[in-house]
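Researcher: Re-running this chain for the archive, since the previous output was lost when a drive failed. Same request as before.
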Amino acid sequence: MKQILFLLLACICLPLSAENIIFRADSMTGSSSESAEYAKLNGNATIITPTMEIYADTIEMSGKNYRYIKASGNVSGTNTESKIDFTCEQLIYDRDTEVATMQNTVHLVDRENETVANAEVMDYDKKKDTVIMQISVTMQQKNNICIGSHAVYNTATRMLYLSGNPQITQGSDVFRAQEISLNLDTQEVQLHGRVRGSVTDND
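Model: Regenerated structure tokens:
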């Protein structure tokens, strides 16, 4: 066991795209070979890379140079570069592509854009600055409350695209359509297909 742990420590410190991994847990098991590595962290598991911090009940690392990270149970974390925090029940993260798939009661906070989102499934692509949200999507930003069954959120352009019976509420104004887009900077709403809604004349 001591030999296996020594090998794991040595391999985990190897870089993938100039990244090193720091880890902590109550216990660890694993194996190592020339082509692939595997490690399982149990209890208060923590993984820290230069761009990502992940905390969970259990974390598994696999693939060459521990490319893939799977976290399960009370998952939380943050992307330190994008300033995006998240919680969910399961996460799969590819360190090479920098794509994270989060499932089951996903809660995401974009601190940079002051945006909070919830969904059952989210795919966050850091390189493309996009979050794809599916099933029971809700998103809040400033005076906007957005709901739908599918959404694409671009954190760089600050654009939100909603579909699947979408609705945006701005104060007392309500907008519905087949597809809705929202510019988070200008607060401009664009409606496409079967447009309907209500607005309040304050005067």
